[in-house]
Amino acid sequence: MTTSTSNAQAGAPAPGAEAALTPAAAAPPRPEAPPAAAPSARELPHTVWSRFIILMLCLAVVTTTLAFGTVHWWALSAFQLSAALVFVLWMLDAWRTGVLRVSRNALQLPLVGMLAVGVVQLLPLGAGGAAGGAISYDPQATRVVLVQVAGLLVYFAAALAFVDSPGRLRLVARLVVVFGFLLAVYGLMQHFVNPRTIFFVREPKNSEPFGPYINRHHFAGYMELALAMPLGLLFAGAVARERMALYAFASAIMAVALVMTNSRGGVLSMVCEVLFLAVVSTAARGRGREREEVGRGSRLRSAAARVGLGFALVLAVLVGVLYFGGEDALTRVAGTVYSDDPTTGRAHFWRGALGIIRDHPVLGAGLGAFGAAYPRYDTGNGMYRLEQAHNDYLQTLSDAGAVGGFLGLAFVGLLFWTALRRMHSHDRFRRGVALGALGGCAGALVHSFFDFTLHTTANALLFLLLAALATVNGRVEEPESGGRGRRRRRRRQGGGADSREEPAAA
After folding, report:
1. For residue 396, is pLDDT > 90?
2. Residue 453 DSSP symbol
3. How far is it, in rounded angstroms, from Cα 472 to Cα 2?
4. Distance CA 128, CA 399 (A)
5. Is pLDDT at 341 greater than 90 in this prediction?
6. Contact 233, 430 (CB under 8 A)
7. Are 187 and 220 spatial neighbours (Cβ–Cβ below 8 Å)?
8. Tell me: the pLDDT tens digits for 241-274?
9. Following CA atoms 90, 94, 97, 98 in sequence, which dihedral angle do they give, to the nearest 10 degrees?
10. Could you tell me the CA-to-CA distances from 377 to 85, 245, 386, 489 in Å, in that order?
11. pLDDT tens digits for 97-113?
12. What is the Cα–Cα distance from 133 to 127, expressed in whole angstroms?
């Protein structure tokens, strides 16, 4: 069995192609042909097993969200079993094609490194707070996190390897848009009809649910991730004119649902996300191939239109929230902090996290062990049991130390560097997907300063899926040449077609 990486480029001549151009009579004697090379990633067929992997990926996005975000043991167990099934299907696809599809995307390496950190933390080195001498203060929690990260890594690597055509890119991107819209509709309906229950059946105790989530902040985090996809396609001009109203409506509904959660971190992240999309889309468009077709004045007008669209969306959302929810809907966002809300003592939580980081600077106190280590550094009355630091960056340093912080920084840096390069593609839809996916990740990273939304399995899975869509290589682009592409360019040159028409799926 050979291994095929997803960085193979299309258009390379097949072995012996040049010889085929020479008349048989004039062809010189050739030595014995070398063994046939392994097929490139573009040449591999879409087997039934690869189609099942894409199906499992789409089902995982939906089911992990509906299962209360996949935070309970039964939902986590089902998620790990599904990841194991994806791995089995992956091996069956390799057996069928004779090639193991593996992506060279460097974003996988920090996740592998985090798994290695967790394994080291479980070793009996006698340096931690656990009874067995492990570095981790809670070895069982570290094992659970390791299994969860392994499952997420399988799905992430599968997305990078098997989202390998324009059609599959369209399928996954549109799933994010459609499911995000439907989830926002359900969340709003539940909020206005019976806000204390989930699916109108379960009423969680000591929590403020929204949609299928027990924690409303995590629902806001999911909306940040999903909302950016339709906005990215709109800002990139990748939506046909007759569909722009649908994408704008879906974006507005998701934004309204986010604001109705009364999550201040979510609202701030959404504003930063919209501004990010406006600025990056303008810069990417100015550097793209379209700069050869339009003048400087047209680009400035296009940039102003994008920035104006972003501010118009924010204003429309605020007006819509005031109309549907009244002034009380913005009280928590713009008002003071209620003293009886245990999630508002973040400054106190962060001081405790800094104490853990100070005493465990290299490898941290253990993945998932923050709840076990924090009581030693808690200067409060201990009324509330704290499981998370309400700041993903501080918790990464407290759980995995400087090594984990470096891995996290490497992941974020590689994500932005690679995704920004992908936005130079000639394929407008591919640019829009890269822009929207990176915008969603950027919004979640802003929210991570104030919360722990990425500790929810459903949110982490969607974040990694967007990271894959933002950085997957040129296999997912529509060919620059070809019958329909040539006809479209001729129509644009003749002024007879809308240049924002979506390219057809392969």
Report:
1. yes
2. G
3. 21
4. 12
5. no
6. no
7. no
8. 899 889 989 998 999 999 889 888 898 899 899 8
9. 180
10. 42, 52, 11, 64
11. 999 999 999 999 999 99
12. 6
CA–CA gap between residue 312 and residue 317 (Å, rounded) = 9
| Range with the poorest average pLDDT among 168-177, 228-237, 319-328, 391-400 | 319-328
Residues 195, 403 contacting (CB under 8 angstroms): no
Range of 4-13, 118-127, 326-335, 488-497 with top mean pLDDT: 118-127
Structure tokens at 256: 């309204």
In angstroms, the Cα distances linking 184 to 204, 214, 281, 354, 447 are 20, 15, 25, 36, 19
Measured between alpha carbons, how far is 283 from 291 in angstroms, rounded to an integer? 11
| Helix/strand/coil for 4 | strand
Q: What residue type is 336 in one-letter code?
A: T
Q: Are 236 and 422 in contact (CB under 8 A)?
A: no
The DSSP secondary structure of 206-265, one letter per residue, reads TS--BTTBSSHHHHHHHHHHHHHHHHHHHHTT-S-GGGHHHHHHHHHHHHHHHHHTT-HH
Can you give the pTM of this predicted structure? 0.83
Cα–Cα separations (whole angstroms), residue 372 to 122, 142, 367, 377, 481:
15, 11, 11, 10, 59
Round to whole Å and give the CA distance between 260 and 453.
Answer: 17
Let me know how long the chain is. 506
- In angstroms, the first-to-last Cα distance of the chain is 28
Give kind and range of the element (H or E) at residue 2. strand 2-5
C-alpha to C-alpha distance for 227 and 187, rounded to whole angstroms: 14
* Count helices and strands in the chain by DSSP H and E runs: 17, 2
